[in-house]
């Protein structure tokens, strides 16, 4: 499977660096220490990823005798170390064990595979049956989860600010969908293209959660990472697609900085040009389109977004306006000049993104 214009080294985390930066400055060493160590570990992993990446998206064949259109999951345990993938603890078809973290990771891999297959006829994240690998219990008090271009990795959290990163199924889905983007549009991880990369993962992470729960767009909470924040934190999730900027407002973490419209677009050199911050704008556009259409969001709004991501026209350096224009085109091509086209066009207009 090839990607547009070559392959960019991928290392994508669910907790943005600006959150960990803020946390690392806490007066309490029990809060600051794990955050600092997580930032250091992320920097090491990011550098390692750049140095070891070869040109071309990695291609891993499904195991011999594997059935097509069936998941091929393997969960490993790092045993609080950092060597990947770690010790194999559960393979495809194995019964659940006593470790709830392993079981949640296995289930989350399966839920992501199922949505991609059932809703979009995509066989795993590369469309070609790619095995899904995950490692749990990574490092000690590691406050993140990431996709490194080849597999999922989950920390246990510090128990003070963040809980186990396998708890929210949308976190698992979010990170795996970075893999889908990697094998399709391969959006550059900086600035507006990077924010679109993050937003696409939030969109489909949320859809995986909604699909698993059988929720309509009206029933969904549209939160990313609900259940991840420890009880002491004043907040409900990492991000809100319904109301960007309202996910948390905490004395240690600070306030959620996400804008909902272009009026509040954040210009910054940090966080790869604000990829986790400005993703709130396309996130909100999807929420508006999905709720305007009603029903199950993965069926119409999700299909339009999927068509754009995988259609071959989305450039690596795409800006918000480019993406918006392609969603309008995709809505018209798939559904004609009906309510889908109107909902998508109006959603982008409401967040201040002009279609070209």
UniProtKB/TrEMBL annotation:
Keywords: Hydrolase, Metal-binding, Metalloprotease, Protease, Secreted, Zinc
Comp. bias intervals (Low complexity): 58-68
CDD domains on file: M4_TLP
GO molecular function: metal ion binding; metalloendopeptidase activity
Record-annotated Peptidase M4 C-terminal domain positions: 185-353
EC number: 3.4.24.-
Cofactor dependence: Zn(2+)
Role of this protein: Extracellular zinc metalloprotease.
Protein name stated in the entry: Neutral metalloproteinase
């Amino acid at each position: 499977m090839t990607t547009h214009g070559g392959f960019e080294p991928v290392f994508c985390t669910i907790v943005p660096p600006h959150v960990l930066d803020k946390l690392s400055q806490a007066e309490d060493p029990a809060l600051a220490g794990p955050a600092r160590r997580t930032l250091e570990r992320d920097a090491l992993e990011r550098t390692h990823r750049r140095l070891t990446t070869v040109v071309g998206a990695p291609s891993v064949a499904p195991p011999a005798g594997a059935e097509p259109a069936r998941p091929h999951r393997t969960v490993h345990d790092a045993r609080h170390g950092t060597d990947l993938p770690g010790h194999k603890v559960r393979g495809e078809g194995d019964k659940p064990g006593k470790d709830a973290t392993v079981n949640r990771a296995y289930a989350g891999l399966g839920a992501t595979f199922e949505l991609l297959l059932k809703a979009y006829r995509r066989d795993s994240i590369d469309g070609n049956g790619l095995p899904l690998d995950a490692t749990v219990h990574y490092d000690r008090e590691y406050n993140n989860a990431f996709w490194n271009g080849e597999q999922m990795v989950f920390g246990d959290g510090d128990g003070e600010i963040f809980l186990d990163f396998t708890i929210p199924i949308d976190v698992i889905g979010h990170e795996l969908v970075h893999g889908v983007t990697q094998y399709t549009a391969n959006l550059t991880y900086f600035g507006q293209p990077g924010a679109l990369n993050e937003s696409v993962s939030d969109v489909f992470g949320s859809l995986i959660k909604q699909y698993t729960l059988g929720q309509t767009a009206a029933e969904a909470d549209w939160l990313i990472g609900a259940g991840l924040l420890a009880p002491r934190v004043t907040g409900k999730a990492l991000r809100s697609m319904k109301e960007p900027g309202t996910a948390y407002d905490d004395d240690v973490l600070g306030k959620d900085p996400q804008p909902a419209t272009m009026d509040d677009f954040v210009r910054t050199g940090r966080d790869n040009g604000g990829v986790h911050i400005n993703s709130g704008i396309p996130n909100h556009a999807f929420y508006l389109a999905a709720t305007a259409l009603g029903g199950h969001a993965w069926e119409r709004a999700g299909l339009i977004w999927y068509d754009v991501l995988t259609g071959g026209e989305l450039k690596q350096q795409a800006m918000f306006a480019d993406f918006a224009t392609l969603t309008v085109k995709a809505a018209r091509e798939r559904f004609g000049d009906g309510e889908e086209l109107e909902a998508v066009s109006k959603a982008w207009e409401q967040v201040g993104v002009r279609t070209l």
